[in-house]
UniProtKB/TrEMBL annotation:
It comes from Aggregatimonas sangjinii. A motif (GXSXG) lies at residues 42-46. This is Patatin-like phospholipase family protein. Residues 11-169 form the PNPLA domain. One of its GO terms (molecular function) is hydrolase activity. A motif (DGA/G) lies at residues 156-158. The active site is at S44, D156. The keyword Oxidoreductase does not apply.
Amino acid sequence: MGLFESKSIGLVLSGGGVRGMAHIGVLRAMQERDISAQIVSGSSVGALVAALYANGNSIADMLSFFKETPLFRYNFITILKPGLVDTERYIDIFKGYFPEDDFSALERKLFVVATNLQKGEEEFFSTGEMIRPLLASAALPPVFSPVNIHDCLYGDGGIMNNFPLEPVKGKVDFMIGSNVSVIKKVDKKQIRSSFQLASRTSALMIYAINRAKIHQCDLIIEPMELDKIGVLDKAGIERAYIIGYEYASRKFDALEKKTDK
């Protein structure tokens, strides 16, 4: 693709639960057009997809990872830690995909953000041990227990930074941002229960914090159709993937036509 030839490319992947499968669709659209990012940064589910991409896994491998890694294993339920599921029990499963467990083993530069729950700070990880930071970045409270790293407790990266642009900004010629935490206008009937109200306000807060960063990207991929998929709706994996692929394909094609003129 002419526009991207001889340009360094950065890719930022947001958090957003099952909607994050749209990121894999974006990667497929990029792959089909020989667009490759040298630096990738991710938060929460975006960190997991970013790690698989940086690791050189195929699109099929990425989808299998999320379909086969059980989000809620009853034997992982814990009463000894805060959270319903013991996140650290997933370490062995992750080692099947990342046997070297080190950022240096990756094909691309990867940045993962997690929240230091004790200090109240976001932290970026890009060197050394990788699996624990990955698990921490995706450890959404109160479902998943915090992850212990260097004697501190870490939780979901999206708590403080759902769109980790910072490590990529200024290091590449062209920034692609994939945001799956989308916000659309809703009807009154969609804010009827306390749960709907809490979900809506949380989504608005997350988007408000990250909106300015999202719009700093040279190309934003933000499929509004994803709002129909629940954050924890495992049945939405394939649907979110297809939405991401089709939307990204249209965006890349439109950009190519624009630059060819």
